[in-house]
Records
---
Amino acid sequence: MNGHGQLLQAVAKTTQRVENRRGMTIEAEERPRLARILPFLTLTVFLDLVGYGIILPLLPSYIGELGGSPQVVGILFASFAAAQLVAMPVLGRTSDRHGRRRVIAISLAANAVAMILFSLAIRHHALWLLFASRILAGVTSGNIGACQAAIADISEGAERVRAMGKVGAGIGLGVMLGPWIGGRASTLGDAAPPLFAAAMAFVALVGVLVFLPETNTRALVTARPHLSLKALGSNPKIAIVMTLYFFMFLYMTTLQTALALLVAERFGWTKERVGDLFGLFGLVTLVMQFGVVGPISRRMTSPSVLSGAGVLAAIGLAAIALASSSTVLVGGLVVLAMAVGLSHPQLASLASQYAGPGQQGTVLGFAQSSGALSRTIGPILWGSLYHHLGPSAAFLGGTSAAVVVAVVASIARKAPRTVEP
């Protein structure tokens, strides 16, 4: 019996060594794939966000031409964010169970259809069709989360943060170039910009179908356990990540809600100068994500970077709120852009790290859904503060949200590491 037990132990140890070697071989095979896949993932989100940027600045004028009021503009933005709020956890779970490639392809295809509906709404002066277009786009906007989960499948540590930063830079570049392309496309007719956006999504879709391999190989072998919002919320670090997403996107919504109003009222700036401000914001964010995130991630942990970025964001928002000169305001905007450029890749990396293997899509989906909730609430909250308390109130409220980010990020080091299946 003794000899039999020793034999079993020897067999178990041998099997474990073989499995460890096999795991190391698989990991060694997967590592180089990041270098091949990352440029394509970055290009995918870039093309998709160019399409988003093309129509984003034109939405208010389109709605006005269709007979909608400024209140309808707010409702349309809120409907898109509310659709994301509901759909993102489902899309994240789907990418865990059935693969990232499928979710990215479905999202891009649906976005192309949504943009075609958008152009039809303009052509036929149908406001309800415009709402249908934005809701469809929101319900199927899972490609960014799936691309981030794909990176998490084949990277870790500082390498993952750098990769997330490059994808974030692709997002920022797309949002920055999109409005410029949309403005030029609008000279061809009102329906041209959304058709250009549809073409961008279609090109990205073809690229995904032809070139993108599946990174979530676990989904092809085993079914992943169902992870509910309650289960996620009971894990301290996932709750922290969702809180960070909520308050970070909450303070960011001050820009889209109140910046143009503040500079017009305080300095008499035109739409062109407001466009320059947003262009500067995008440029600084891009530089941070391409050139600064990588070196910082090698020296500091993600919670430390997020805490410092929260402090920077608070300083930038407070400077904007209290600026009595354009120089101070632009300086505050630059500091805020630096904070956002640092935060996005670190937060996505932190969420995937705490999710553990096989749950990145689900956790990132719920986290981004938390961000969608703040994008639904934020414009209403900051617009109300601006209307009732004055131009500075919205940005001082955003300052408070940024302080919450700094405090919550500092707590992240003490919670358990991963979500248990």
Note: Confidence is low (pLDDT under 50) at residues 10-32, 416-421.
---
Amino acid sequence: DGSILVGDSTYFSPTISIRIGDVTDLKCFNPLTLSLDDIQTNVLRKESIEINGKSYDAYVILSKTPIGEMTCWQANNGDLLKVVALMGISMIMEPKNIAMSMQPQMDAYMPTDDLAVMTSAQTNIDIPEPRKVNKLLIRFHGMKEKSFAITDSRQTASFSDGEVPYAEYEISAALQDYAKSVSLPITDKSLTKYLEDTPYIQPSNPEIKKIAEEIVGGEKNAWKAASKIRAWIYANMHTKGNIGILRSSVDVLHAKEGVCRDYAILCASIARSAGIPSKVAAGLIYWRNGFYYHAWTEVYIGKWVPIDSTLAVDFVDATHIKLSEGEATDMFCSIRTMGSLKAEVISFKHLADE
């Protein structure tokens, strides 16, 4: 009640009066999280802008959203003329005949890099055999928000908001001991929310329950059960890197293909169905020549531990750096860091070095 609801985070409704200097709090429905996002808009100035050879008088509006800032040019009648969004991605209004005739634009447009490459954090040194790294000390320059400096039993993080902000992470990865795992069922009421259904993680779905029973069987050791789930997903899923939408665990189970977040969501769903509290973690992982955005799962076995069903083994190396944790949609907050990070590897060790 009392909120101003807009249909899109990039522009004002034509029914809202616009004046230079106005700062307005709005709400916009987010179809990914199935919730209302808080949007703050600031009308910066008015200027003339040329689009497709035609001049328009436009308001320049800065929109602050949960995933970052966007600058929008909006005509007096409410038409959205241009948006400059995250990572310099731009959208420009075009007449339908131009938009539907792609050949002239495709001839003129040359993309710079694959999005994953463009948003990766390049390093000062290479890390050989990253999947065997069990100790890592690293600093990410350009990390502007303290909320991404997450500390847990595996990862210690600190944040500096100086002239060039950065976050420093010290990660210690270890093989988990089956003997130290709790037994199923886990009855700690503080963990109940990590066993429940959400829009994308659906442990009570009959198909998810059936596959969880087939995988886990009568296993009561929580870590052994989680290991079986990881192994099954790794063996039965296939990587398909061009899936851009967030999908539910049931959709992923049907398709048995997807990107890392699909693996993580399915793993969390099956684990919850088996009675293992679980959540989705997202952040960065070292691969080839830099740190790339990645998602995996964390399960509770007496303590929270990572498990990555995109890998063939249970060991989750120390180049997995967590920036967010929780439900499937929480991973999108890390979008605010994309394209701004540079990695400084201070030190690392491999399992064989110990």
Note: The two ends are 59 Å apart (CA to CA).
---
Amino acid sequence: MDGFNTFCGSKLAHDQGLKVVLSGLGGDEVFGGYQSFRMMPQMVKGCERLNMVGPLRRTVGQMLQGAAKSPRDRRLG
């Protein structure tokens, strides 16, 4: 899930002529990761189920984004 962030950091380091860069990526996983990492397989299965009903997936996502009170639920949408 952090692939794009790693790419951006690596590109910037390369463009500056650096050979080694230290980042915080991976440390969270050593200590159990984030709850969203554990929820990701369930979220993927839910998306796959919604894919079977075509436009409903987009409609449900838009409803979540518009009606959700928490930033977390809006991101889910």
Note: The two ends are 17 Å apart (CA to CA).
---
Amino acid sequence: MRVISGNQVIYALGEDKAPVAEVQPGELVVFETIDAFGNQIQTEKDLFESADWSTVNPATGPVTVKGAQPGDVLVVDILDIEVADTGVMVAVPGMGALGHIIQESESRILKIEHGFVQFNDAIRLPVDPMIGVIGTAPADEPVPTGTPGHHGGNMDTKEIKKGARLYLPVFKEGALLAMGDFHAVMGDGEVVICGVEVAGRATVRIDLVKAVDLATPIVESKDHWFIIGTGADLDAAARYTLDQTYKFLNDRLPLTKNEICMLMSVIGDLQISQIVDPQITCRMAIAKVHLARYGLRF
């Protein structure tokens, strides 16, 4: 099994950097990661303002996938996510959706043990690890790892977790997959600019589907499809997500346009992934049970 060290990082997907490894379709790979603050916040005296912003949101990689070409789809099965025994959170004035309320910068170091994050003496949160940043090289210029897009990136979508399958468009030869920004737990919206940021290890199987039209990432879980969309604001992200959900269903179901739109309105759940990055990310959840008779597949 190939192990990619957390010391091998990039700060923009698609940046001009030699790949750290080449893998075969179907190969198992372990990505080791450092936390989204670049491991710079080690004590509660280390405030966010003191961190080197240029080393925030590192992603381990990139890894090339043999045979991947533009127009293909990268398939990433997330087999396991392990997290460190401490996590970090920050609250920063003027940052995030609640920055207008926060008046004093604060860092919190949170203990993680026995499957729980100890938030305080009264609150223990079940660990539910997820991958905040994961993506391929974008079609055009490099995109910072802190920004989401059609290539993936900083989607901060909590459904990208153990047991999920992620479909990513391939825009450049080799795909150039990288990932990082793990969270021990995170709520939809990530409203204070972070979840419980944590270093970790993800074991994934990387595969390839040739010549399939995919414009935006899709997550498949045991029970749902999640079509992910990114836009300049919440309205734009929602519209793009809805359009891509329509396309996904229209390509696979023998229904009229009106039927698909009505179906989306009764079985689709439009959800917010994050509202604090340079671009906003939404997703639409489609429960598989309603489409079981059609045998819908990617």
Note: The mean pLDDT is 97.
